[in-house]
Design goal:
Elements lengths: L3 E8 L2 E9 L6 E8 L6 E7 L7 H6 L3 H7 L2 E5 L37 H16 L2 E11 L1 H12 L6 E5 L9 H11 L11 H6 L8 E6 L5 H5 L1 H11 L3 E6 L6 H19 L1
Helix pairs in contact: 2-9
Length: 277
């Protein structure tokens, strides 16, 4: 799969590249960034999934992750959050349509032709990165924020053959039980709530999804979405009932912004690096 590198920047001794390629899954041009640490690969890979309204640039410019990635010698891949462009369905609301792919494959009109973000992340994106950069596909983890935290948890649970470690910042842990998820799943997957369960981290864990030796979650207690949308206590209960180890760190005073992520991103990168070896 051909990858076009549109920009390259030297940072922390490594190389940060902005890329685009044609996706079979979405039928559109998709964009992503890749940080490759200094030295000779192959390197473990961390896939970062961003939240609502984000592009491939938000995490790349705001999270301050490259120093820790260079130190621990891991590649970080940050894709866009949805297909975009002329002819791609959209909605004027920030929490639906372009910028709000929710990391599922839509089955409903007008979203189904292009909004296939699960297939894109687990197929086209990984193939493109593995083909163009010095990755070790056996050592791959996934992490993300908010909608992307939902994506990280569900894609790891649904594809344990692809991802060996998983963590999240302020994830939407149970989209079937919060307004963001109910709105998006109704639009993308239809009215049948039974179809939603396969994309709800709590329900997947309760149903016996593949276990990880640990899941790391950081949640700010000053997060404006904590009670209405995120509900980390649901993940805590699901993991306890299923015997899934969960390290849930409640961080006093932190909100939902990238100021929260930049405060703890090095912890997550070090945690993944230790898991991936």
């Amino acid at each position: 799969m051909s990858v076009e590198i549109t920009q390259t920047h030297r940072v922390h001794g490594g190389a940060l590249s902005y890329c685009r390629h044609q996706s079979v899954a979405t039928g559109t041009t998709m964009k992503f960034s890749v940080f490759v640490p200094p030295g000779d690969g192959p390197f473990p890979v961390l896939v970062w999934l961003s939240g609502l309204t984000c592009t491939e640039d938000n995490f790349t410019t705001k999270a301050g992750a490259n120093g820790a990635a260079a130190q621990h010698r891991v590649i970080i891949v940050a894709p866009d959050t949805s297909p975009r462009g002329e002819g791609v369905a959209d909605d004027p609301a920030y929490d639906l349509g372009q910028g709000a792919g929710f990391y599922v494959d839509a089955t409903q009109a007008p979203w189904a032709p292009h909004f296939r973000m699960e297939s894109y992340i687990t197929g086209d994106l990984l193939a493109a990165v593995d083909g163009a950069f010095p990755t070790d596909p056996v050592r791959r983890g996934v992490f993300g924020h908010s909608m992307g935290g939902h994506g990280a948890l569900t894609l790891a649970l649904r594809h344990p053959d692809l991802f060996k470690s998983v963590s999240a910042f302020a994830p939407i842990v149970s989209p079937t039980r919060c307004p963001w998820g109910e709105k998006a799943f109704t639009a993308y997957l239809g009215e049948d709530r039974a179809a939603w369960a396969a994309h709800d981290a709590c329900l997947l864990i309760e149903a016996g999804a593949a276990k990880f030796d640990d899941i790391l979650v950081d949640q700010g207690l000053g997060d404006q979405f904590l009670e209405g949308q995120l509900k980390p206590e649901l993940l805590e209960a699901a993991c306890a009932a299923a015997g899934q180890k969960l390290t849930l760190r409640r961080q006093p005073g932190y909100d939902h912004s990238y100021f929260f992520m930049t405060s703890f991103i090095a912890d997550h990168i070090a945690w993944h690096a230790a898991k991936l070896g």
